[in-house]
Amino acid sequence: DTYGWETSGVQNGKIQHGQANETFYYVFDAKINGWRRASEREEYLQRGCTAAQQNLVKGKGGNWFTCDSSLWRDATDIEKDTVNWGTNYTTGKVKSGNVNKNLFYVFDDVSGKNAWRHGTVMDSLLGVACTKSRADKLEVTEKTYEGLYYVCTAQPTPDTLRKWVPVTDLYNDTHDALDSCYNKIKYADGSIMVGRVNT
């Protein structure tokens, strides 16, 4: 099937059918400097998975695959949702997924470098992402969402590094009764007030 095929100057990952048996496909793999039999997924995608294509994400017919260690595997949500987004974004950018519109992603510090990571619905609803710098400072939102203030915390879940959580009842109930310098506005020492949220 591959007799006489060139091995020099051939594009790594090139795929073509056999010359004797056209139902078989072969991939040129620079790692072995030769042709090898294509896998079923390589045939389906008409794209070889070699070291040069590591982490490449490809979709076809509603299915998504990632080239990983010379095998096409099913792509994860974040791989298919952020494909071709690149890294030309400011820290804290929030976007909904390309494929899963109900999932959100944040451009943030991930293990010391900026990259896309899983976000939460609250990142989108608040219009401000809970980023590493905000989590380090336990930053609180300036505005409320459905009457509650939120604080950015480093509370990792299986797929999220940081998330907004409601601030304590004490903060949510009394914050608006204080000015920016935390001076009492209308309450004297010993006054009792009704909670803003928990009335």
Task: Please give the alpha-carbon distance between the first and last residues.
Answer: 80 Å
Order of the strands making up the biggest sheet: 1-2-3
Q: Percent range for helical residues?
A: 10-25%
Can you write the helix and strand succession as a string? EEEHEEEHEEEHHEEH
What is the number of helical segments per DSSP (H or I, 4+ residues)?
5
Class from helix and strand fractions? alpha+beta
- List low-pLDDT spans: none
The number of distinct β-strands equals 11
**Average residue pLDDT:** 91
Question: How much strand content do the residues show?
Answer: 25-35%
Shape: rod-shaped
Q: What is the radius of gyration computed over CA atoms, rounded to a whole number of angstroms?
A: 26 Å
Overview of the molecule:
By secondary structure, the chain is an alpha+beta fold. The chain contains five helices and eleven strands, in the order E-E-E-H-E-E-E-H-E-E-E-H-H-E-E-H. The strands form four sheets. The protein has a three-stranded antiparallel beta sheet with strand order 1-2-3, with no helix packed on it. Strands 4-5-6 form a three-stranded antiparallel beta sheet. A three-stranded antiparallel beta sheet has the order 7-8-9. Strand 1 (15-17) and strand 2 form a beta hairpin. The chain starts with 14 loop residues before the first strand and ends in a 25-residue tail after the last helix.
